[in-house]
Amino acid sequence: MEHSKDRATFGSRIGVLLATAGSAVGLGNIWRFPYMLGMNGGAAFLLLYIACIILLGFPVMVTEFYIGRHTRRNAAGAFKQLAPRTGWSVIGYNGVLAAFLILGFYYVISGWTLEYIFHSMTTSLAGKDAAVINEEFKLFSSGVFRPIAWAFLFIVMTHLIVTSGVKKGIERASKVLMPLLFLILIALSIRSVTLSGAMEGLSFLFRPDFSKIDSSVVLSAMGQAFFSLSVGMGCLITYSSYFSRNTNLQRTAVEVIALDTLIAVLAGVMIFPAVFHFHIPPSEGVALVFITLPNVFGQLPLGNVWAVIFFILLAVAALTSTISLHEVATAYIHEEFQVTRKRATLYVSLGAAVLCVFSSLSFGLLGEAKLFGLTFFDLLDYITAKLMLPFGGMLICVFVGYRIDRKILKAELTNEGTIPFYFFHTFCFFIRYIAPVAIALIFLNELGLIQWIKSLI
């Protein structure tokens, strides 16, 4: 086991911020957030999302930061240290396994972004309507070799970064990728708001209609908040284990949440003016990015240029996420099984590649091979997003809220009393009572049980 005093740490405060923000920022912000907002009424959903981020996301993120830095261990090793020879270690194993399984299907979507960069550069989508683009997308995604080849290229990129280590790999990549992502988002947002009819899209995004709020919208906002911040999957615990002892955990959590939310809002600014300009329903759903937006770009002056920039943005966002997911599993194998980082990285990459093949083939060759009515891709998505992540997030809150001595918790979160924590008791109340209940509601909603109960009343 790697001793904490010899353990790698991020080299600078900006490295801490960009790497940790990169672990949170991903396709959840740029792909999932806009279509979730579009399907749930626009600005009212945005306000609920921000409220959930502040009231629930912040306490849970700080809790994971505590676990990571206090133990300076991987996600599984952290709970083995905090609660040795108890069943609580299942939380850590759940996080490591969830991160690994997510890689198995996330690489497939990430590979799609590279395919669309290629299409945009060759202008092969220019002049085609949404129906044609939809058919071509289905033809591509159901193929055998091409989608797998793109996914493998993404695996190689992630592997090379993670195998280089914490400072030379993850931190250095984050310092390039995160500013690049932000600059591309700004450029695309400026282009979008110059379109005629842009104000209608901005109004949808920023002018709330509270009549659209119901229990389903509230639960969707809570679910998106946790999905966006990557809680419950070991990423934040693993990354915070590389924080130095003088890192301000409270301030880092605020900064990461602010960056994560800003990028999600900018994604909305980028997408909705264009959507309203071309009279596309904002509730288009998951097709918004890979089918609808290529059609939008095809109708713009220099559309192929903007399309290339947009899909590079998606690829960068995906890469920051695959790096953090890969690191969760790599750190676990590296530390718990006493193997070199290069070998641990290789094991994770090879394992993820196997899952990736089955996930990709589930859109075509293995499309009829189903378990519980789900394809392999959908099964990995369902198990992780709807079961393992809410389960992990809820148990982390319960563990810290009821198992950890408050004096120890406060000492860690205040850097031994050198940093004030004005709302510490409120934080503890939220972790012990509010957050577990909220996550349990998300869990039940994702399983469809709340809708089922409603139907019985």
Report on the structure:
This protein has 457 residues and is mostly helical. Helix content is 76%, strand content 0%. The chain contains 19 helices and no strands. Helix 3 runs antiparallel to helix 12 and helix 5 packs across helix 16. The longest helix has 34 residues. The termini are far apart.
Largest sheet: none
Instruction: Give the end-to-end Cα distance, rounded to a whole number of Å.
Output: 54 Å
- From the alpha-carbon coordinates, what is the Rg to the nearest angstrom? 21 Å
- Low-pLDDT segments, ≥5 res: none
Q: Helix/strand-derived class?
A: mainly alpha
Task: Give the overall silhouette.
Answer: globular
How are the elements arranged and paired?
Layout: H1 13-24, H2 27-39, H3 43-71, H4 75-82, H5 89-121, H6 130-141, H7 145-163, H8 166-193, H9 198-206, H10 215-229, H11 235-240, H12 249-277, H13 287-298, H14 303-336, H15 341-361, H16 376-403, H17 406-413, H18 424-446, H19 449-456
